[in-house]
C-alpha cells in the first residue's frame, strides 16, 4: 500500500511538473508570435516608406534605382507599427533595432509578454514573463540594368515576370507599382 501511495504521489508530481513546462512553452510560443508580428510590422512599415521614396524619386534622374534595389539608407525603424502589433499580442516592445541580413535592411524586435507563465507547482513561474526576439528583412524583388538609370522612360523587371515601363512625365496616367510588387518582407530567423 505504501508503495502504491508513493507511486501515485510521484506520478501526480510529474503530471503537475509537465503541466508547468507546458504552460511555459505556451507562454514562449505566445511571445515568439508577438515578436514575429512586431518585426514584420516594422519591416512592412519601412517597406511602405521605401516605396514612397521610390515613387517620389521617379522624376529625379537615376536616384530611383537606389530606392528600387535597396541601396538607400532605410527611412525609419517602423517602431510605432512594431509597438502596436506587440500590444495587440498582449506584449510590450522592448526595442526595435535596424540591422542587415544578406546585405538587405532588416529589423530585430525584442518583446516581453504582459502575461506571466501562470501558477503551477513550480513557484518561480507565477511571476515570470516570456521574452522573445525576431528579425524580419526587406528584400528587393526587382532588378535594373545599369544602363537603364539614365533613360527618359524607366524600365525594370520584378519577380513573377512583371515588367514595368514608367514615363516620369505621365505618373498621374499610369498604375504605379505597389510596395508588395517592389519588396518582399519575410522573417529572417
Summed up, what is this model?
This protein has 189 residues and is of the alpha+beta class. It has helices spanning 2-56, 63-68, 79-88, 179-182; strands at 91-101, 104-116, 129-140, 142-143, 154-158, 162-166, 183-187. It is built from four helices and seven strands, in the order αααββββββαβ.
Based on the model shown, name its key terms.
single chain, 189 residues, alpha+beta, four-stranded antiparallel sheet, 7 strands, 40% helix, 28% strand
Q: What would your notes on this structure say?
A:
This protein has 189 residues and is an alpha+beta fold. It contains 4 helices and 7 strands; from the N terminus they run αααββββββαβ. Strands 1-2-3-7 form a 4-stranded antiparallel β-sheet. It has a 3-stranded antiparallel β-sheet with strand order 4-5-6, with no helix packed on it.
Write the layout of secondary structure elements.
Elements: H1 2-56, H2 63-68, H3 79-88, E1 91-101, E2 104-116, E3 129-140, E4 142-143, E5 154-158, E6 162-166, H4 179-182, E7 183-187
Antiparallel strand pairs: 1-2, 2-3, 3-7, 4-5, 5-6
